[in-house]
Specification:
The chain is of the alpha+beta class. The protein has 4 helices and 8 strands. The protein has a domain of 109 residues: Gcn5-related N-acetyltransferase (GNAT) (Aminopeptidase). The longest helix is centred in the C-terminal third of the chain and has 15 residues. Bound molecules: coenzyme A (COA).
Amino acid sequence: MWRRFNPFQSALFRNFRKQYTTKRIRINEREFEIRQLNAGDIKNLLDVQRKVYEGETPWVRSAFLSELYSRHAHLYLGVLEENQMIGFMGVRVSLSDGHITNIAVLPQFQGLGIGTILLEESEKFSRSLDCATMSLEVRRSNQDAQRLYRRFGYVSRKVLPQYYDENQEDAIDMVKYL
Ligand SMILES: CC(C)(COP(=O)(O)OP(=O)(O)OC[C@H]1O[C@@H](n2cnc3c(N)ncnc32)[C@H](O)[C@@H]1OP(=O)(O)O)[C@@H](O)C(=O)NCCC(=O)NCCS
């Protein structure tokens, strides 16, 4: 996840938007909706973050707003169960790289395969824009997420020393070659 939102992460724009067709998926007899996020979802995205990050919101409202209205090619998806937001993911395309900017699933829904589905959607989107790679940053201590990314084909590229401001933790920069 980006340490914090940076609107100038890429200088080049692809000024077009792709529409995502809402999907319904079943996991363990439960039905979930995956749909494109909009500004009206931000309050719920902040709530998801608080529950995932022990009260913290690494991304604030303005960060989500800027991303949702970015002129960069991007896809922000939410996963809902009975209209309750239980997870989300964002990918932003820069040059030929699809970068996962943020991904989180509520603790009680983790381990069900929702993260994997969101990674698959991010990859389909990136491939549709002819990306050569996908990338992301993950905390060095976040072994669970790293295992998921490795299983999905990501490899470590480099260490970003003291990337996260609040505790100076290193990030691992990971890449997947498409
Ligand atoms: C990382 C995250 C998005 C994965 O979503 P998910 O829905 O739990 O992922 P899946 O169910 O598809 O995959 C589970 C795999 O992820 C890993 N995993 C990560 N967190 C897990 C958890 N709390 N419980 C179980 N598995 C977890 C495991 O390696 C598991 O692999 P396995 O099937 O080999 O055991 C989610 O766990 C999460 O929100 N974590 C907290 C926020 C975070 O770390 N975000 C990533 C920032 S880079």
